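Wait, mind explaining this?

_____
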Amino acid sequence: MNDFSDVTARRVPPLGGFSLTLLRIELTRMLRNRRTIVFTLLMPAAFALIFTNRQDAGSAAGSGNVAAYILISIALYAAALTAAATGAMVALERATGWSRQLRLTPLKPVAYILVKVTMALIMGGIAIVVVNIVGAVEGKAVMPTHVWIFGALLALVCTVTFAALGVFVGYIVPGENAMQILGPGLAALSFLGGVFIPLSVYSPVVRDIAYWTPMYGVAEIARSPLTSELPWYAVVNAVVWFGLFVAGAAWRMSKDTARV
């Protein structure tokens, strides 16, 4: 009786099934996907080269220049898009019945979500590193070393919001349609939220709308080491949207009982 109990206990994975082995398998699977390479490596590098070659790239901006301001913004956008795409992989797993199959294993739902979010952070971190390397090699961006470091770290922290968004969308949109929504959606929100274009360029009406978008708060936070400015309402914006996306992902996962 005791032996049987011991064997049964050993079958229950620690941490609900969350492990480095599972992360390694997921990372290998992601890096074999060509779309992932495009989102994580090629597209961020291209954006960094294109947007930092503006005529006013050398103009002063905070403790650096405009190119530095743009570089941090591009790193945030690339990480957000990559993290959202990684999180949205649950849509394909649901479409193939894989997520339903996982329900038959000891893997806990919370551990499954943690694996997805961790993977999104890893992939987002790679995108941030790629953008910063391109910026450093190109030489247009000028800012103190601590701004490079803290700007990258804050962008990575903010990436969690979009990992949650990706998981949320992955649970409400079937199959590959998830990225067809997330891609253009994040691009539009980035333009409106002041990621690519300073809000001062917009009319007061558009600016008031921008303050409510998911990209506004995280962009202000990521750039705060450079600008030395961080409005309190930007922090509230980021926290509220993070909470909404996490709550949405948790809600939809609890309702997910059928194969899409």
User: Anything to note?
Assistant: Residues 4-8 have pLDDT under 50 and may be disordered.
